[in-house]
Amino acid sequence: MGKDIGIGVGAGLVAALLFSVLLKASALAILLYLLAPLPILIVGLGWSHRAGLAAVASGALALALLVSPYLGLAFAAYLALPAWWLAYLAMLGRPGPDGTLEWYPTGRLLAWVAGTAALAFVAIAAIASPDYDTFRTQISEMSRRVVQMQVQRGRIPGPAPGGAATEMDASKAEAPQGDAKPDAPAASDDLAGEVADALATLAPALAAQGFAVLLTFYLWAAARIVQISGRLPRPWPDLPATAMPRAVLLVLVGAVALSLAPGFVGVLGVALIGGLSAAFALQGLAAFHDRSRGRPGRLGLLVGLYVVLFLTQGIAMLALVLFGIADTALDRRRPQAKGSA
Fold it and tell me: In the chain, what's the furthest Cα-to-Cα distance?
């Protein structure tokens, strides 16, 4: 056990170093930052959950003492604890009726990925903004900057040039009241403002959605690394057979209701919707892989699917979300008990 703890401490320090380089704000720093959860996941999957906890504690403590207490807290809440928790769940197992070990189902693990991503976003939001009003102000300012960038790129209509606006105002002043025309610059400003407000409202869902996809990739990559090393106790699961339980649909309904609440409770609801949408999309992708097995032209179908996802920049992901929801509701891919119809 002592050796596992020592390895965990080392992994935590590596993860903390990768996390802290984000302060450099360079492209390489961002790339290294994205690798930060992997050391914790690797020790959690390949050694023990105690080693994972040691990694969480050592990384957070090092950042708190050497950089800033807030950075140490952010590291623990947003990356370290989620990585440890998912590794812990993945290694859960219990004896089955026939005496063989039954591992934690990948469908339930996928559902926990969604919930973990949502909770992590709310945790980092509360750390960065102690009160909801501050959080809303910060997220609104970020949304306006994003919208301004889109206006500059021509993707969102911007206000007309000042000269044209002035001429329009003058002509409006000379024109009869009945012939007055809408103010185009004002309409453009209103459109940009509405887009910014909508983006600020959806930001928690978008952030949790992206983080859920990243956590899934981290978990897969870490498990592959540990499997190659020969330290993965769990046999590799049949990923295309991944199916979340129907109860997750009730969680989605609860998340929608929760999103109507004020403050950070509502933020959690919106973030949970985003995290679950990513989980349903991934299940839809798994279902597509599963149902295409043994079919002629399967490779072409899969390549075509990924090409469409790439070319539409994620818009086709909505179809995968709906497919995943339907797959969960119908529950036809889950192995049926013997003797069932």
Answer: 90
> How does DSSP classify residue 126?
H
Three-state SS at 103: strand
Query: Does residue 182 or residue 225 have the better pLDDT?
Result: 225
What type of residue sits at position 101?
Answer: L
**pTM tops 0.85:** no
Taking the C-alpha atoms of residue 314 and residue 296, their distance in angstroms, rounded to an integer, is 27
Phi, psi of 211 (to 5 degrees): -70, -35
Beta bridge partners of 103: 93
Phi/psi at 264 (nearest 5 deg)? -70, -20
Please write the tens of the pLDDT for every residue from 92-115: 988 878 778 889 999 999 999 999
User: What number is the average pLDDT over the span 116-137?
Assistant: 89
> Of the candidates 121, 103, 87, which has an alpha carbon nearest to the alpha carbon of residue 278?
121
Distance CA 258, CA 269 (A): 5
